[in-house]
Amino acid sequence: MSRVEDPRVDAATMDDLDAVAELWVDLARGQQRHGSTLLAGANREAAREWVARGIVTGELLVARPDRDADPDGDDLELLGFVGFSLERGGYERDHTRGTVSNLYVRPERRGEGIGAALLAAAEAALADAGAEAVALEALVDNERARAFYTDHGYEPTRIEFGKPLGDGTEEGGPEKNGTEKDETKRDGTENRGG
């Protein structure tokens, strides 16, 4: 895809709350094919709370179509979003670090520079807030995301190891009781459980 004119990146407002929460659910659903264990629909309310907190703190940005480049475009359609924050509390560090979280662009708009614009805006906001470095996470199986971040100057600095305990079908697990609805299975097919 070709690069669009720079999208408009703004601080999210309360008018964006529901739309960003739904995009977060799409993000979580899509990440399941890369090994994420987050349940999409089951976390909708938690996502709304995260979005509301980001709006109130000014730590959530959204990308919209540039009205000048596309005067007939739907100004209300969000193209993507990104959350960010300074690391607070915890251990003392030798520098102030910011974190970027939940960078998401609608799948049909990827490859147009929207993610790069969101990432650059989050980095600039973190630098303005005093961050000297930025950290973020990507799932190891998400090669496209890892390549995107590498292309934007990020380098791996830490590896997280995981190990399942048991066979994954213990009491209450979604694989055994089949209660999770509208989730994407690890193989990318939809689970429309009852």
Automatic annotation (TrEMBL):
Q: What are its GO cellular component terms?
A: ribosome
**Positions of region (Disordered):** 156-194
Q: A single Gene Ontology molecular function, please?
A: acyltransferase activity, transferring groups other than amino-acyl groups
State the UniProt keywords alphabetically.
Answer: Acyltransferase, Ribonucleoprotein, Ribosomal protein, Transferase
What's a Pfam family this protein contains? Answer: Acetyltransf_1
Answer whether the UniProt record assigns the keyword Ribonucleoprotein to this protein: yes
Q: Does the keyword Acyltransferase apply?
A: yes
Which InterPro entries has this protein been placed in? Acyl_CoA_acyltransferase, Bact_Acetyltransf, GNAT_dom
Residue stretches of biased makeup (Basic and acidic residues) = 173-194
Start and end of every N-acetyltransferase domain? 7-176
**What name is this protein filed under?**
Ribosomal protein S18 acetylase RimI-like enzyme
- Upper lineage: Archaea, Methanobacteriati, Methanobacteriota, Stenosarchaea group, Halobacteria
